């Protein structure tokens, strides 16, 4: 590796190679597309990576921390990663300011700190306790004072950061063109029999602001239509209750989260309609990925989803409007939807575009 290259540390992810999550995917594809232009070090959770630890990936150095990168432990995970990176890197790209309160110490190290603030108003999300919301808000306030550059993944979050914390952020979205369209083969069909017929699809983590209950309530009333929902059902009481309530409907398939890329590509690229139900994400990676499959997409009606889809999708706000939207779609609507979504994705949400935006921040 050329010693003149900027040494950039990526902090705040479970690690790479990515198995799930927007930050992990971002780290994975930044290191892939900027390989040879930047000298990357990526901090990884050894708990997340225990079965596949490696020294390098995408020609980037991997450093393992024996702490979970999620929940309250993420504060300690980010503290350790940040302290190490201060001694070894020129630029610190911190994905989510979990440990923002230690950034005042940067006056000693004088490194360039870039913070990606993640989804829309994280400090307001229902999945967090009052204490967690307070910590998130304090960390953003402090990071606003001591970070060099701030990134939001959509215009609405940029405005909110400005209004709430007087933070001036640049907007950089996510890429989605790493997905591949796959045909159904006999092996995957035997594992996922629902692929043999027409189905609708939702892929969401089991948290209340992803509105899986709205989707399932709607399809409970449409037994002639098959809905497949991929989620990590057992991580929350919300997920467990949904599995208990809706697990016995013949048209509802509640499938455990799929991390195999070929399987996930096959399931997503062959759906009749993708239903994006997230309400508190920013430029949701799952949405821009779905758009890149060139499949029809409808979205939960919140400003950020309208912004991501440039108001070209159809939108629902509850189970009744979801039923209405689905029943009013026809073959022309499906074709128009998939064409519009793919056109937007291929012009705005590609990793070539996104990685070059980050590169300009690294080398300034």
Features:
single chain; 364 residues; alpha/beta; eight-stranded mixed beta sheet; 14 helices; globular
Annotate the secondary structure layout:
Layout (H helix, E strand, L loop, with lengths): L6 E5 L10 H12 L5 E7 L10 E2 L2 E6 L7 H16 L2 E5 L10 H4 L2 E5 L13 H17 L2 E4 L2 H11 L4 E2 L14 H6 L8 E4 L8 H9 L6 E5 L5 H10 L5 E5 L4 H9 L3 E4 L8 H8 L4 E4 L2 H6 L5 E3 L2 H10 L2 H18 L2 H13 L1
Parallel strand pairs: 1-2, 1-5, 2-4, 5-6, 6-7, 7-8, 9-10, 9-12, 10-11, 12-13, 13-14
Antiparallel strand pairs: 3-4
Largest sheet data: 8 strands, mixed
The secondary-structure element order is: EHEEEHEHEHEHEHEHEHEHEHEHEHHH
As a percent range, the share of strand residues is: 15-25%
The computed structural class is alpha/beta
The strand line-up of the biggest sheet is: 3-4-2-1-5-6-7-8
Rg calc:
21 Å
> What share of residues is helical?
40-55%
Shape: globular
In angstroms, what separates the terminal alpha carbons?
A: 20 Å
Count of helix runs: 14
Return the average pLDDT rounded to an integer. 92
The residue ranges in which pLDDT falls below 50 over 5 or more consecutive positions are: none
Number of strands: 14
Walk me through what this model shows.
This protein has 14 helices and 14 strands. The chain starts with 6 loop residues before the first strand and ends with a helix. The strands form two sheets. Strands 3-4-2-1-5-6-7-8 form an eight-stranded mixed β-sheet, with helices on both faces. A six-stranded parallel β-sheet has the order 11-10-9-12-13-14, sandwiched between helices. It is globular. The protein is 41% helix and 17% strand. It is of the alpha/beta class and 364 residues long. The longest helix has 18 residues. Helix 7 crosses helix 12 and helix 10 crosses helix 13.
């Amino acid at each position: 590796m050329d010693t003149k290259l900027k040494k950039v540390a990526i902090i705040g992810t479970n690690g790479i190679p990515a198995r799930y999550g927007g930050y992990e995917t971002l780290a994975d594809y930044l290191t892939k597309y900027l390989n040879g232009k930047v000298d990357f070090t990526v901090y990884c959770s050894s708990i997340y990576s225990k079965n596949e630890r490696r020294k390098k990936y995408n020609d980037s150095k991997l450093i393992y921390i024996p702490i979970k990168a999620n929940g309250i432990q993420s504060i300690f995970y980010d503290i350790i990663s940040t302290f190490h990176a201060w001694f070894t890197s020129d630029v610190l790209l911190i994905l989510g300011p979990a440990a923002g309160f230690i950034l005042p110490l940067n006056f000693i190290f004088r490194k360039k700190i870039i913070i990606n603030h993640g989804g829309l108003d994280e400090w307001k999300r229902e999945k967090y306790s009052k204490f967690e919301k307070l910590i998130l808000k304090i960390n953003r306030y402090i990071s606003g004072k001591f970070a060099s550059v701030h990134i939001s993944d959509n215009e609405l979050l940029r405005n909110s950061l400005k209004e709430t914390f007087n933070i001036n952020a640049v907007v950089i979205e996510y890429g989605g063109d790493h997905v591949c369209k796959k045909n159904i083969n006999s092996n995957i069909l035997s594992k996922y029999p629902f692929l043999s017929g027409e189905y609708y699809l939702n892929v969401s983590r089991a948290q209340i602001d992803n509105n899986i209950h709205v989707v399932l309530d709607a399809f409970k009333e449409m037994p002639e239509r098959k809905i497949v929902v991929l989620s990590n059902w057992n991580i929350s009481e919300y997920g467990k209750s949904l599995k208990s309530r809706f697990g016995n409907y013949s048209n509802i398939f509640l499938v455990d989260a799929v991390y195999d890329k070929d399987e996930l590509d096959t399931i997503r690229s062959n759906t009749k309609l993708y239903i994006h139900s997230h309400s508190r994400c920013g430029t949701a990676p799952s949405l821009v990925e779905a758009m890149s499959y060139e499949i029809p997409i409808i979205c939960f009606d919140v400003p950020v989803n309208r912004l991501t889809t440039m108001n070209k999708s159809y939108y629902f706000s509850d189970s009744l409007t979801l039923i209405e939207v689905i029943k009013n779609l026809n073959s022309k609507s499906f074709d128009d939807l998939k064409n519009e979504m793919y056109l937007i994705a291929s012009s705005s949400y590609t990793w070539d575009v996104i990685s070059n935006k980050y590169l300009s921040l690294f080398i300034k």
